[in-house]
Amino acid sequence: MAAKHILEGLIKWSTREPWADRFEEILEDHLSPTCDETGLEIDDIVSTIGEDLFMSTVWACAFEDFLTREFDDGENAIDDYLKRRGWKESASVRTYMAALRNSTMSLYEVSDVVRGTSFRARDIVRGGEPVLISERSATRSLKPWDRIAARVVPVGSKMQICGGVLTFEHETAEASLEVWHGFEKLGK
User: Fold this and answer.
1) Burial 50-59 (b: 16+ CB within 10 A, else e)
2) What is the distance in angstroms between the CA of the first residue and the CA of the last residue of the chain?
3) CA 41 to chain centre
4) Do the beta carbons of residue 76 and residue 101 sit within 8 Å?
5) CB within 8 A of 184, min separation 6: which ones?
6) Whole-angstrom Cα distance, residue 62 to residue 29?
7) Per-residue confidence in pLDDT tens, the chain, 188 aa
8) What burial class does residue 66 get, using C-beta atoms within 10 Å of its C-beta: 0-12 exposed, 13-18 middle, 19+ buried?
9) Roughly what angle, to the nearest 10 degrees, separates helices 19-38 and 60-68?
């Protein structure tokens, strides 16, 4: 039997209106540049990279982006879910959702990987000291000096990464940093 996803209730809640249409727009925003560049349709992307990889990376990153958005009417999916259904969730899941709600994706450099336990992540966009991330599954594939795009959130006394994680080649990460710093200089 498959384990229940920590956000299962929130995922189901997000299939209701108005959230379903809002998520579809954000997913299209994430996929449109790739579709335009490759000539593929969204369904072609899924069949090209496989449903498992699509769901664990592209969909997960778009969904987390959706969960952090405050829409024109001031609404947010996590706020709405916690207000209406939060009583169904454990305190730790509610804490995780609240941390995710206020999170930002960034680019991190991985070090000090302890398989099945933790790794350190240094934010190479915002700077600062590396933080210890409590994580089991990602430590099985991460290696020192890997670059990942992820959301790092505090949950209790520990730091965790959210589910949407993208790995970057060093060259791609460096090019992304150049673009990021270019936007910073422009004040965007």
Assistant:
1) eeeebeebbb
2) 47
3) 23
4) yes
5) none
6) 9
7) 445 578 999 999 999 999 999 999 999 998 998 888 888 888 888 888 888 988 988 999 999 999 999 999 999 999 999 999 999 999 999 999 999 999 999 999 999 999 999 999 999 989 999 999 999 888 999 999 999 999 999 998 999 999 889 887 766 556 555 655 554 554 44
8) buried
9) 130
pTM of the complete model: 0.84
Q: Residue holding tokens 């994580």? A: 135
- Residue 155, both tokens: 């949950």
- Separation CA 177–CA 171 (nearest Å): 10
Nearest-CA neighbor of 97 among 4, 188, 11?
A: 11
